[in-house]
Amino acid sequence: HEIEVELRQASAEGTLQLYYQPIIDLRTQQVVTREALMRWSHPTRGMVPPGVFIPIAEQSGLIAGMGDWAIAQACLDAAKWPDGVGVSVNVSPLQFREPLRLVQTVKDALLAANLTPGRLTLEVTESLLIEDNKATLELINELRAIGIKFALDDFGTGYSSLAYLSTYPFSQVKIDQSFSRNVNADEASKAIIEAVCQLARRLSMNVVVEGIETEAQRMAVQLLGAQRAQGYLFGKPEPVSEFVKGESRKR
Ligand code: G
Ligand code: G
Ligand code: MN
Ligand code: NA
């Protein structure tokens, strides 16, 4: 409970941060998108991982305000990046339970940042889709009509129903890092990555393979048909100040 009070305070005071991790195009090696990952630097506990504080935010209702903030801040940050670089934001299933609020948040964020809607992707997990209600599909379609995109996150970890890929209009499917971890040792991981890449291509979706840490993994997933990848090999989640510094060094 104490941690909930402190999270409420951090959210109200604006001390939460967004870190960004690059998603790269394997063919061109260019950054195509940056995924926003929320961070809470606690004055005494240090960095509290989102795996700890997001569930607390969901149970307490704080996720609504924190989620609004993440979308708004990510759009403001992305507006300063080159035109070709998009931003993706993780969205909790609870944010989908307030459809009017989510639509308004997205519209306000795009307008305030003057960001082209096509540069914003919302990442959702299968837990949202299990409920399988018409309202979810309608909301996704309403947001797509604004011009934003959707990615299915952590694919392969939950029910991974192939029906989700045909029922919902995703632009991107993100294959969970558990598959890339074993890609060079395990035939099953290889087969799954290859099959999902083929399926995604047939459905005109991009594939991002998550958790690429080594050159050997990068080569393997590219050979299996992946277009995009994310992982420590290309960059860790960092605050804007870090990669802006890195980019100006490169110039
Ligand atoms: O890097 P990492 O430990 O940052 O992220 C762990 C998990 O926390 C991610 O898989 C993601 O699902 C979740 N997460 C990170 N940032 C956000 C956010 O802004 N909103 C939501 N809903 N989840 C997030
Ligand atoms: O939203 P999602 O569940 O996909 O969040 C991605 C999580 O994976 C974050 O916690 C992020 O810090 C973590 N991550 C990103 N790249 C790597 C990687 O190369 N290796 C490992 N072990 N974790 C990663
Ligand atoms: Mn994600
Ligand atoms: Na993931």
Automatic annotation (TrEMBL):
**Domain EAL: start-end pairs:** 1-251
> Highest taxon of the source?
Bacteria
Protein name as it appears in the record: EAL domain-containing protein
Q: What organism does the record attribute this protein to?
A: Bosea rubneri
Q: Which residues of the full protein are shown?
A: 535 to 785 of 786
